[in-house]
Amino acid sequence: MKRSTVLRRLMEENAPVVAPGAYDGLSARLVERAGFPAVYASGGAISRSTGIPDLGLMSMSEIVARLETMVDAVGVPLIADADTGYGNALNVQHAVRAFQRAGVAGFHLEDQAFPKKCGHYDDKSIIPLKEMSQKIKAVKDASEDPDFVLIARTDGLAVEGYDKTIERCHAYMEAGADVIFVEAPTSVEQIETIAKDLPYPKLINMFHSGKTPLVATSRLGELGYAIVIIPSDTQRAAIGAMERTLKAIRRDGHSGSMQEEMVSFRDREVIIGTDAYMAKDKSYAA
């Protein structure tokens, strides 16, 4: 079964689909091993993994190359971040074909003006409603997978306010989006009101210390949110662990004091699947 089909079934039968964020093949595999039904390929986390901020600085080809490694590392659906589509409607069509070739199950496309910013940064700007609606139509026209999940994201709350944001959401769904994503609601009441005013499959972004308060997954399901992404918590946890390990190495000359926080050499190889690679190599030996 195509991964896009699997994602659609999960949204229908097991919502909300919780998809923690990943940024490379290893982190994607860890999400899958933890038992989650889908992986979110966070554009912000991918960008930061290269040492640059989430400001739309990476090219489409750089993102797609990373997505290919992530798709290959897991068997569950991968939801990708397509930012603004890397340009106009024609660029968006080029992007959807590339993302589908990479094997992702769906992506979200946002209405920020280029260059975009992380949705929880200040001073964002957005494109006109009609322009975004046309980009959504362009994605649907170019898609070669009828089950590919198109998630329309709006950053309108911080720019135009609530009422115009809801207007945008209705227009984006009418243009052909499968899921609506209102970025950065700032209160539980707003999360609940969005759910009431938008009777569509919805995605919500949940992570610690952002502008959006944390809400239990069970409650989000009751409100009709079909997908819950947690974009960068895995990366921030990894940063903290690496900093603690490096501090120990700097102090002691080795990481002995950190052993309880580290997987063993052997456990790492199990996660990577080294034994299977070695066995396959032996099977092809002359």
What can you see in these coordinates?
Helix 4 runs parallel beside helix 5 (89-102), helix 5 packs across helix 6 (129-142) and helix 6 (129-142) packs parallel to helix 7. Helix 8 links the parallel strand 6 and strand 7 (202-205). By secondary structure, the protein is of the alpha/beta class. Helix content is 48%, strand content 13%. Strands 1-2-3-4-5-6-7-8 form an eight-stranded parallel β-barrel, surrounded by eight helices. The protein has two domains: 3-232, Phosphoenolpyruvate-binding domains (TIM Barrel); 239-283, no CATH class. The protein has helices at 3-13, 25-33, 43-49, 60-73, 89-102, 129-142, 162-175, 188-197, 217-222, 233-252, 265-272, 274-283, and strands at residues 17-22, 39-41, 78-81, 106-110, 149-154, 179-182, 202-205, 225-230. It is built from twelve helices and eight strands. It is globular, with a radius of gyration of 20 Å. The two termini are 36 Å apart.
